[in-house]
Amino acid sequence: MQAVTEYLLSRLAGLGIEHVFGVPGDYNLPMLDFVEDHPDLQWIGSANELNAAYAADGYARVKGLGALVTTYGVGELSALNGIAGAYAESVPVVHVVGAPPIEMQRWHAPVHHTFCDGDFDRFPRIAAQVTAAQANLTTENASDEIDRVVEVAVRSRKPVQIFVPRDVSVANVRARNKIFNIGTSKRADNGQLTAFRQHAETFLASATSVSLLVGHFVDRYGARKELRWIMESGVVWAAVLSMAKGVVDETDPNFVGLYAGSISDRTTREAVEEADVIITAGVLLADTPTGGFSHRLDPNRRIDLGVDDASIAGKTYEGVPLAEGLKAIAQVLHAHPASHATVFRRSSNGKPQSVDRPQPDACLTPDLFWKRLSRNLRPRDMLFADQGTAFYGALNIALPAGADLIGQAVWASIGYTLPATLGAMLADPSRRAVLVIGDGAAQTTIQELGTFIRLGLKPLIVILNNDGYTVERAIHRPEAAYHDIARWNWSSIPAAFGADDTVRFLRAQTNAELDRALQVAEIEQRLVFLEVEMEPQATPKFMDRLIDSMMKGANKSLDVRSERQAMP
Amino acid sequence: MQAVTEYLLSRLAGLGIEHVFGVPGDYNLPMLDFVEDHPDLQWIGSANELNAAYAADGYARVKGLGALVTTYGVGELSALNGIAGAYAESVPVVHVVGAPPIEMQRWHAPVHHTFCDGDFDRFPRIAAQVTAAQANLTTENASDEIDRVVEVAVRSRKPVQIFVPRDVSVANVRARNKIFNIGTSKRADNGQLTAFRQHAETFLASATSVSLLVGHFVDRYGARKELRWIMESGVVWAAVLSMAKGVVDETDPNFVGLYAGSISDRTTREAVEEADVIITAGVLLADTPTGGFSHRLDPNRRIDLGVDDASIAGKTYEGVPLAEGLKAIAQVLHAHPASHATVFRRSSNGKPQSVDRPQPDACLTPDLFWKRLSRNLRPRDMLFADQGTAFYGALNIALPAGADLIGQAVWASIGYTLPATLGAMLADPSRRAVLVIGDGAAQTTIQELGTFIRLGLKPLIVILNNDGYTVERAIHRPEAAYHDIARWNWSSIPAAFGADDTVRFLRAQTNAELDRALQVAEIEQRLVFLEVEMEPQATPKFMDRLIDSMMKGANKSLDVRSERQAMP
């Protein structure tokens, strides 16, 4: 026998989780005892629940699964936007909510952290909108329900929610010793897979150029190895969507850059769109990653590798999981490489461009900033870029091998990356973390800086201080007062959140100052907090193109109807 | 003709709203233009949406109605816990959400700030769980729907949510000039009201003592005037529940203190429970306000004045709104005052007790702190006390005439009061604001301090620094590490959030230091930020009693079933 919470934690630990994020509350306190007493788990308390949810999301993106514990009502709802973001961007987080004792619920008692209307189903109904599965534990169903929803999280790459009444959390259940072995993908249908491979072989046979457009599901469904195998064939040109930047090794000679429809660099767009065969792998063709639905990917020349099925020029093969589909394509390409194109005729796109010689005292622009920062990135770095000028600037740089870009291209919740960096650093302490975030975004979640300091983590944190919501200025009426934010003294922020000599504060306003600051950061052994000052209306060129394209899209009839896609 | 947003804003301004809270986002930017251009409205940008929702709630508690504008998905869900709190505590906030253009929704387009699954109904489904009405505006329905849901907010004293697609927000509707006249109460049924009054007259005729237990609906449904009329009769002893502290003038000789079931001061409990007739007015008998359902209010001796109906010893009269019910009771009591008790035989409860003479250098406890602070409160002050040691300490002091206590007794979301203070100060700049909040709670919403500084507001803000979540320590395993939080340097906090010489920082660790600090605060013309240091396990006595009573309640069969009540 073991307690329900012990059983739950053993399942999470068995799947590789080592840290549990959250905030204590009276309904979850007994659960936290089990976390604290667990030999393989560490409790990471956050300053608030939204931050904790973001941290669990960042953790899950690196570790494959994350866990969050909050209290009923106030806690879970504070975390909701973080869980919704995990849902939108396919990140598996197990959200455990401490709930009122089960007898209280059965009596419809008007207890705190509820609406005192006796309706305890409101909260599961909310959770059902932003998670792939929900469970209300009882002592009778606990082990079955825990196994069920945790499996949904792992398989669907989506968050799930588990309500644990306070009394149930400490009740006993029979322990199960069977190994909890969950694959992330459905099993392949071998007949369909063979048919698909044969069709692909024919379809690719006469192609003299093949492009591969990579989406984030390749990462989420653990298919990076199969992707690398395709790249090793040397006969496809690969581009990434913004949600997948870093999934293709950008030092590969056949990496052709970021594809974003009509706003892509011209050579990237032509390489992708004009190939004889266009292979899409795990893509989500949402508005921002496609420059406002401006992608032009001829359906008749396409092989689409979806999460659970694959199709060729519109003919669909069910039961072909993404990794299997990629493997089949790799087999075909390795068997008959000669007929396809070899090394991409590179222009400058997606690569460091000719070294500029700007005035050392010239004010920084986002593009100048990113050019400089990108020279300081190292292989395997985790680069976090928050929505706005940070994220859209980051899309334009070349990443070193093994480096990843983490941000929210589609859910796009400002402030997400600051706690997400915390989570990711705990998930893999061997990788360096660099966070770039605008001042408006940083204001939403800044208190989590205290947790970095408390835990002794040492990222490079760059605040792009452009005096407000610059991305919104770029979209609409740049001078409007509602784009302004409170002016903080960023140099005092680290000390306020608990830093003594544990944080190095730096500031840069010009190219020369930034170069110096990055040199200092390079050798600094502490957390570096770098404020980079920019003009309120200085935007990355890529963002200008995106906004221009999306605003046009918003004002015309779109081709969305013909581009409808099956969403996983 | 006028734009949909203009129409909406004219309705809000017509109901007395002067400030609109929120955070900009691309889907709501065109709406913000109308706010900025409106002669009678001011935009108050917050650091994040949860804080904005809390601010709108604080505003509504003082002004009668609040308004919040967020963006789709990320913004509205970040605000959700704030809106849910308004729902739980019956505070009318109109939550306006900028949504994707209506054509995008009709095409089920995978756009940012959604789950890219084409299901745009997820967000209204979530809103339906925490608001009393929801509207999805189109150019056809806009004016009808705006009128409908705003009326629900005003009448039900609950939040409502309005989704405004970006294109709809600027589309034209026919303006309506009719005055938007909404009462907060349903109309009385005159027959029922007369029957109720006659029954009350008989019921009260032979009573030699009458107690009146006041709940927060008396405030929410605008019935303070009728309550005062009852008090002027001089023949009832009035107590308040925690949600209604401040609603009865605590300098009234017949005010008998805070009633919280078995954990009330003995004289208060006896005065309420042992009266010949017990009148409850607008009460919500939830767990925390009743000391864990420990109230003993004999149903056979009771007159219950509900929001929409009244009952006497179980016989219900429908169609008797709270204010009318109070007025009827006042009429009866004024007509036949002689038969009832007169001035309450006061003991020490609910009043400043004999002046203590503690060691000047002794460490502060919550009760010593509150005793000192209460001497500095002035008539009409707005006192904000956050969940935990702050709120439960505040319940034990006597408020000056016209002063209010604002906190969340039932929803109990930590951090709420910091932004709520901001909102309330804008709602009534003529009243002084004093905020008391624990360090753990303050960490959740601290960034809103920047908005106080930006707007030049000058509250007295007291941080009770007890090194973690003291209320949770009191509930469960005080030494557990999960109660700990990051240690901030509170003295650096104001400067970090933008204060130059605009904020006075003070610190107190002993009785003498606190007395000095409060003297300084008294004459200071700036925002005062006072850190009061306490031991991690120092708790107000009232909180100890509450936790003890609730934990006992959680472990025994409760009388909840027999105490079920109709929730408004």
Keywords, separated by commas or semicolons:
homodimer, 568 residues, alpha/beta, seven-stranded mixed beta sheet, six-stranded parallel beta sheet, 21 strands, globular, disordered C terminus
Please provide a brief summary of the model.
The structure is a homodimer of 568-residue chains. Chain A has 568 residues and is of the alpha/beta class.
Q: How are the SSEs placed, and which strands pair?
A:
The structure is a homodimer of 568-residue chains.
Chain A lengths: L1 E2 H11 L4 E4 L6 H9 L4 E4 L3 H15 L2 E6 L2 H5 L1 H9 L4 E7 L2 H5 L15 H9 L3 E3 L5 H15 L3 E6 H5 L1 E2 L16 H16 L4 E5 L2 H4 L3 H9 L4 E4 L14 E4 L7 H8 L3 E5 L20 E4 L3 E4 L2 E4 L3 H14 L30 H11 L5 E4 L3 H6 L9 E3 L10 H11 L5 E6 H7 L3 H7 L4 E6 L4 H6 L17 H4 L6 E6 L2 H13 L3 E7 L7 H14 L14
Parallel strand pairs in A: 2-3, 2-4, 4-5, 5-7, 6-7, 9-10, 9-12, 10-11, 12-13, 16-17, 16-18, 18-19, 19-21, 20-21
Antiparallel strand pairs in A: 1-8, 13-14, 14-15
**H/I helix tally of chain A:** 23
Rg over alpha carbons of chain A:
24 Å
Could you give the count of β-strands of chain A?
21
Shape of chain A: globular
What oligomeric state do the depicted chains represent? Answer: homodimer
Low-pLDDT ranges of chain A? 347-355, 557-568
Biggest interchain interface, per-side counts: A-B, 98 and 97 residues
The strand line-up of the biggest sheet of chain A is 11-10-9-12-13-14-15
In terms of structural class, how would the helical and strand content of chain A be classed?
alpha/beta
Could you report the average pLDDT of chain A, rounded to the nearest whole number?
93
Strand-residue proportion of chain A: 15-25%
Estimated helix fraction of chain A: 25-40%
Describe the sheet with the most strands of chain A: 7 strands, mixed
Cα(first) to Cα(last) distance of chain A is 38 Å
